[in-house]
Amino acid sequence: MAEEEKTQLEETPAAQLPPLPPLDMSWAKAPTERPPRPKIGDEGLTLRMADYGTYGIAPDHWPYQNDTPRGAYPADDMGLPAPYTIYEKAEVWAENSADLYELAIKEQWKPATQVSWNSIEALPEHVEAAIDQIVSNISEQSYNSNQVLMGWLQEISYGYHEVKLYLATQTFDHARHVEAFRKRALANGGGLGVQAPGFFNRAVYAAFKWTEYVVYVNIIRTSMLLALCEWGDKIGRSQADRQLFEHTANDLRRHLAYGIEHVKHYVQCDPRNRRHIRTWLERGEIMMAADLKRDTALRESFILALGDSVQEGKAKLKDLREAQLKKLILSLEAATVYNHADHVAKSFRDVIENP
Fold it and tell me: CA 162 to CA 169: how far, in whole Å?
């Protein structure tokens, strides 16, 4: 407003100002559900408790193209549509999303203060270089997962807010893993290692469907990383290393739990979707195999970190790869994708059996 207009308005007597419209309280009578007051227990007010009655019903199709909260009464003038592309429940839903969100908030950890960095002692140069290469690879994978996930998050419509809230915690987990494993590579006189070949990273970037991304990241990559972190006591040389792997494994179990429940829901909604899962699994395994086969730096690092001799390191690396494949197959069985052991991509099986 121009200065002269402001001055004129301030000097206008109150009696000459236009009358205010009458108070309209119709908005307070919105025909939305009025749930009873929740009985809050030791866990506090959780999402499931708050989303009582119709507020907790996620529709199979979300009808609004804007930010209307689920359960709110839609305005007559909805304004411009939001940039969503996913409006179907089958494409994103996992029944455990709300619980995973609460769990993630409760279990979040801080790499700066909850890892005993001072426990890391000087190591032989070849061992430190091996550990640095392994953690560099994990940090790179986490960055790739997060980079793509953040792009997908904005595509999911408001009707599935439990999923969006949980996935927000997963982005934070990935960011935490990037930070923590990068710090480990730089914490003991070493440095970051060699970049991975990146075949699997490019598969993640190229995912056309959300469920395809979930198969690559929450199922294949997370199964592999979780099995690796559960071997942390065999790789780490300090309390800090073990804490790092333990905390990360706990995060990855939530990622895997969402992936399993989402794939299960996706298949149950339409059994024909099972063939899509099989196709994405095959593609992901082929790209993972291309990485593992060509990543000499990572392979030799595992041999040095896992064994006191080359032969022992090779034997333990094979055991690790078999543990990773077993984790993947069991995860798929939990997601009702049965008999995957009979459908593992040949190149992936070859690199597991001959790492």
Answer: 11
Q: What is the pLDDT of residues 27-70, one digit of tens each?
A: 888 889 998 888 898 889 999 999 988 899 999 999 998 888 99
Distance between CA atoms of residues 220 and 335, nearest Å: 13
Distance CA 160, CA 211 (A): 15
Q: What pairs with residue 88 in β-bridges?
A: 61
Q: Which pLDDT does position 277 carry in this prediction?
A: 97
Cα angle value 116/118/122 (rounded, 5°): 125
Tokens of 56: 């907790």
Do 217 and 152 form a contact (C-beta atoms < 8 A)?
Answer: no
Q: Cα(48)–Cα(55) distance, rounded to whole angstroms?
A: 10
Distance in Å from the first CA to the final CA of the chain:
72
* CA distances, 39 to each of 32, 36, 71, 225 (Å): 21, 9, 21, 39
Residue 353 host element (H or E): helix 346-353
Nearest by Cα to 247 from 184, 349, 173, 150: 173
Which band of pLDDT confidence, cut at 50, 70 and 90, is reported for residue 15? low
CB-based contacts of 314: which residues, under 8 Å, 6+ apart?
Answer: 303, 307, 355
Give dist(CA 117, CA 111) in Å, integer.
9
Position 13 scores a pLDDT of 66
Cβ-Cβ contacts under 8 Å for 23 (sequence gap 6 or more): none
What is the Cα–Cα distance from 171 to 268, expressed in whole angstroms?
A: 27
pLDDT tens figures, 327-340: 999 999 999 999 99
For residue 259, what are the β-bridge partners? none
Residue 1 has pLDDT above 60, yes or no: no
Q: Which of 134, 268, 249 is nearest to 194 (CA)?
A: 134
| Per-residue confidence (pLDDT) for residue 27, from 0 to 100 | 85
* Amino acid present at 77: D
The whole-angstrom separation of Cα 214 and Cα 257 is: 11
Cα–Cα distance measured from residue 137 to residue 221, given in angstroms and rounded to the nearest whole number: 12
